[in-house]
Amino acid sequence: MNAMHDRAAAARWSRAQHWVGHGVGSIDTPTLVIDLDAMDRNLARMAAFAAGHGLRLRPHAKMHKSAELAQLQMAHGAVGVCVQKTDEALALAHAGVRDIYISNEVIEASKLLRLAQAVRDLPTRFSIAVDSALGVQRLAEALHSAGVSTSACLDVLVEIDVGQGRCGIAPGVPAVALAQAIAAHPALRFAGLQAYHGGAQHRRAAAERTAAMAAATHAVKVTCEALNAAGIEVPLVTGAGTGTFVIEAASGIWGELQAGSYLFMDADYAANEADPRTPAFEHALFVKTQVMSRCDAHAVCDAGHKSHAIDSGMPSVWFPNGLGYTSGGDEHGVLRAVAGAPLPALGEVVWLVPGHCDPTVNLHDLMVGVRGGLAAGRVERIVRVDARGCLG
Which residue, among 37, 89, 112, 43, has the nearest Cα to 376 in the 3D structure? Predict the structure, then answer.
């Protein structure tokens, strides 16, 4: 089965390479397409923002899962990238990414051993988050099992729960014991705090996001004070997402931003009320689809749920104007006219903006980079989704 999958993936890759140098009309449907001009502008705007505020930028590569795009971000000033899974980290490291932070907890010994072996064997600088003494212990044991004896070879950050209600130890004093446990292992170095409020990113009103982050800021301050009182320096506070990074930047507490979706900007983020301090990011990720059936009341395109994620809602229709997308199932999308707009013709191309870029990218082996716009541009390159399916 793996050999069959590899052959099929190789065939798709080979077919996509034939689109390079040709117009957008050559791209098959449904296919994930990057507007490279829009992406470059997003890349430059975020890099300028971070530099202008004296902050480190460590974008979340779980969004694009691509070593090429991770290296592009680092070439534009990012110190490295984040991922959420061990196998994501390893896939990107083997593809040449040289600074990767696993901003998530890993407890399974076999996964930690794979990470420890990579620490031993690869030129990539790894770091990881923890929120339990068991996590610290198993991490140290994995490094020992892999024969890693270098002093302070792995940076470890303590994750605190700043309001997400997901992972993270309670703010304040509980974090002190965990930092001390890290410092007790010679191969580990306490590198700071992971303070990310994912739930705040998609609160629609800017005032709601600000209020959520005020509570998060307080939690970080209390934790830093407790650590300092115990004689423990906090080298870094890292976190932030595309919906709130201007708030973390203004706090004077966060030193590193982990925003990732700014590079592509999905439909869900676009639905947020804008904060005037935020750079103007553009949609850069699209699903190219085609009308495959049509009647008087609606048209049907060939991009269903297997081509885009729906956890944050249906995709929006970027072009033609005046269309709404509703679910047609795994392989179909139903398009209906809004406010008297004409339905697209049979065979006409329709461009969709995914509701949530991260899981949408994970459905694809590759993304097609187009230069010169979606209407008349040409395919410049094919971007491999190196960490697709890396869930462990």
Answer: 37
